[in-house]
Amino acid sequence: MNIEKALIVDEPWISKILSGAKTWEMRSTSAKQRGWIGLIKKGSGHVVGVAKMTGVDGPLSDQKMIDNSDKHHIPSDIFLAGKFSKHRYAWIMSGAVRLRRPVPYRHKSGAVIWVALDQNVSDALAQDEAVKALA
């Protein structure tokens, strides 16, 4: 498995994704990325997990957000009050696992959502026991 890109995700969302409880990462735009991606805990300097990005749905109506709160974990009173009002695209993920050992990466200037991973980071991810179990 060769993982070349990683998504930056803040707490508490990344922990929910890695636990398998959250399968929709809500964003303000659509995305073309599909397949296995790294998951970076915002501000940590490390790839802490991997997940398979399977698709995108959106923009989602208030009702669709309410109906799928079990997938995105944003309380309805929060998004109905206007917080997360731009975050109406569900980036759909499956198979998320936490790495046995977080892998440091070099954060390139300007990387806010996606990080292109160096080959040595991709190689380290492929060698992680949790990732090997997915193959």
TrEMBL record:
One Pfam family per UniProt: ASCH
Residue span(s) of domain ASCH: 9-59
Leader sequence segment: none
Name assigned to this protein: ASCH domain-containing protein
Species for this entry: Tropicimonas isoalkanivorans
